[in-house]
Known about the structure:
The structure holds two protein chains of two kinds. By secondary structure, chain A is an alpha+beta fold. Chain A has helices at residues 3-68, 74-87, 124-128, 185-277, 283-288, 290-324, 337-351, 372-389, 420-423, 443-453; strands at residues 93-100, 103-110, 118-119, 140-143, 158-167, 170-177, 332-335, 355-360, 367-370, 394-403, 406-413, 457-463, 467-475. In chain A, helix 4 (185-277) packs antiparallel against helix 6. Chain B is built from six helices and four strands. Chain B starts with a helix and ends with a strand.
Amino acid sequence: MSAELEQQIALLSKALEREKKARQQLEHKIEAFNAEQFEINKDLLSSYEHARVREVQLQFLTFLSKNNIDDKSLNEITHYFASNIKELFSQASCLIYKRINGQIQELKYQAHGMPDWQAIQLSDDELQELPRAKELNKWQRQEFTASAKQLAHYRGEPTLVINFSIKERYQVGIVLVIEHYCYSDDFKDTLQIAANQFATIISKRLTDAELSLNYQKLKSTVKTLRSTQKQLVHAEKMASLGTLSAGVAHEINNPLSYLASNLETLNTYVDEIETFATHQGVAPFVQQNSKISYVLDDLPDLLFACVDATKRISNIVSGLNSFSRKNDENLSPLDISYPIEAAVAITHNELKYKHQVQLDFNHQGALVSGNKGQLQQVFTNFLINAAHAMPEGGNVSISTLVIEGNLQIKISDQGIGMEEKVLARIFEPFFTTKAENEGTGLGLSITYAILTAHNAVVEVVSTKNKGTTFSIMMPLT
Amino acid sequence: MKGAVFNGFEQFVTERFGLSQWQQLLDKSNFTTAGIYLASDFYDDNELVTLITLLCQAQHIELPEALRDFGYYFFDILYRKIPPAPADQTLFDFLRSVDKVIHVQVKKTDPQAYTPALFYDSPDDKTILLRYVSQRKLCFFAEGLILGAAQTFNTPVDVTQTSCQHQGDKDCIIKVELCQQN
């Protein structure tokens, strides 16, 4: 190469370098100008981008929460939440589990693109391999262990795991099996906000449920308290009446004894007077005196009526004594079906034409401590009362059932029923709805007294024109 | 594609294979631009792809390899154009800042520039996954850039793709793992 040519090349190379530098300077100027323009619009562009992302985020969260606040069960909202989160990922499948006291209780699986949740079973070893989140209410990215990859239902590599604590010892876990977790920070933030929102929703739902449960418990407690109070007042009243009855019976009993004894003597005297009056020497004189004759005729009838009345008074006093007696003498283990069947047999003649008695024993030989004779009296009384409540006839049913260490005996009729004010007084002595000479009003009082002496609790439910049910709870031996 | 990339490619070809190779590529491609690329301007993506394809044919190398090499080479040019990194910045810190810092720098020089979107995941301390989303599908070029960055940060890494659009996958996921000695 000639020296002139080499000089020419060197000159051209220098010229090329100058051109290159000139171009670079020009490019730098343009870039500087663009950068200046960018800085001017930077805040605007940044705000726009931020607003755009937030809008999308808000749309998704609003959609999610709108449907979550609908009236759905906890399971439904969990499935709904998991399904929608799953749809944010391409090719994702999802697993939901309930962990109670550390044990997996329920597993549901939703495959990619499938709308339904399927219950699945995993072996103990497989359950051990289930990913677990270390913190509550926070999405955590985890890799599958080698053995977990063998699980038939799992695809993909990373998992997103979240655990929500529903209440103490009760957790719901959501496992998303995804192909990757390369997403923007905004996307990941949205996921976490959705999780927080969901945690708030289920927390609120649980609070509502607990409030409702507590309210129901409170209502039940108030009801029990009112019932107990009513029973206490009633028991107190019956105890007072028992004391009063015992006093009255005692006071009547002594003069009644004199009266009965004297009437017996008087009867003897009358017999002697009658014998004397029929004596030959006296008889003409008596026949002539009409008044004496009338007295002698009427005297035996009057005496008989007095003796009869005395017996009635004696029966009432005996009833009062039965009502006021508190002892539990002669109680022994017995099968309640015996006194019931005996009472049915006793009342058979009175009930057989218009009434049917149905027995339904379900106590299977369970024994109570009782006096057979007294209990027979109780059930006889109930049966007679039931028949009186159904003058046109009907069914009386007696059923038994063992409930939590007690024997429940129910006696139901389909009779005229009672009003509330009658119901409140049926166990009081001398209280009766029958006509004056048809009852003493002591039957149910004595029944109540006997049952109380057997440590039984009696409840009555009655509906006017529909019937009455007596429910007796006796402790089992 | 920004002219700066074409300029970088020109520099890469000239340095590695000589000025005549570059001229041959221009002659064979017969583009109207005729090799005149302003760094701040934009040019058809296909021009670069064609130029690289022609280089592969001329030098008997595979396209992914050529793109990876060019990316590795180009990182140095690119790195000099952005603000200096903090002294304690690691390779992973840098990679995480690409979308928010470097691409913003590109936008500064031209607000209309199209930059790929990168989404990150860190399964553990030694691994970072990048989902590369770009209509240009230059994931191998991105791999080269990452390798260049690793060289600059003096941090040996293994770079692989767990899924790739060129293999029919939905996404390109680039896995960067620190080598064992790290």
